[in-house]
């Protein structure tokens, strides 16, 4: 049914306060670190994350507690 399909497509992947796996990829090199989610997000959403250095950046939600750092 439409309702079930919609729910599976819009599953919450990151909750505010979650420690997420954050990946940054450039020129074929992937760097992975952890960060704290400052916002909740569904797959594809852009959220703010805070790194251990207290720097805040933007990241795209790509999976369950997984984000891709964007510039």
Q: Nutshell version of this structure?
A:
With 71 residues, the chain is mainly beta. 11% of the residues lie in helices and 58% in strands. The chain is built from one helix and seven strands.
Major pleated sheet = 5 strands, mixed, barrel
Fraction of residues in helices?
10-25%
Radius of gyration: 13 Å
Q: What ranges have pLDDT less than 50 throughout 5 or more consecutive residues?
A: none
Distance between the first and last residues' Cα: 38 Å
Q: Would you count the extended β strands for me?
A: 7
Major sheet: order of its strands?
2-3-5-6-7
Question: Please, how many helices?
Answer: 1
In percent, how much strand structure appears in the residues? over 45%
The helix/strand class is mainly beta
Coarse shape: globular
Q: If you average the pLDDT, what whole number results? A: 89
Strand and helix map with partners:
Layout: H1 2-9, E1 12-14, E2 19-26, E3 29-37, E4 41-42, E5 46-51, E6 56-63, E7 66-70
Parallel strand pairs: 2-7
Antiparallel strand pairs: 1-4, 2-3, 3-5, 5-6, 6-7
Can you describe what's shown?
This protein has one helix and seven strands; from the N terminus they run H-E-E-E-E-E-E-E. The chain has 71 residues and is mostly beta strands. The relative contact order is 0.26.
Could you list some keywords that capture this structure?
71 residues, mainly beta, five-stranded mixed beta barrel, two-stranded antiparallel sheet, 1 helix
């Amino acid at each position: 049914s439409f309702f079930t399909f919609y729910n599976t497509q819009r599953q919450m992947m990151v909750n505010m306060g979650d420690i997420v796996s954050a990946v940054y990829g450039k020129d074929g090199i992937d760097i992975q670190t952890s960060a704290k989610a400052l916002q909740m997000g569904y797959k594809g959403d852009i959220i703010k994350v805070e790194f251990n250095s207290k720097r805040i950046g933007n990241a795209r939600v790509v999976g369950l507690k997984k984000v891709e750092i964007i510039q």
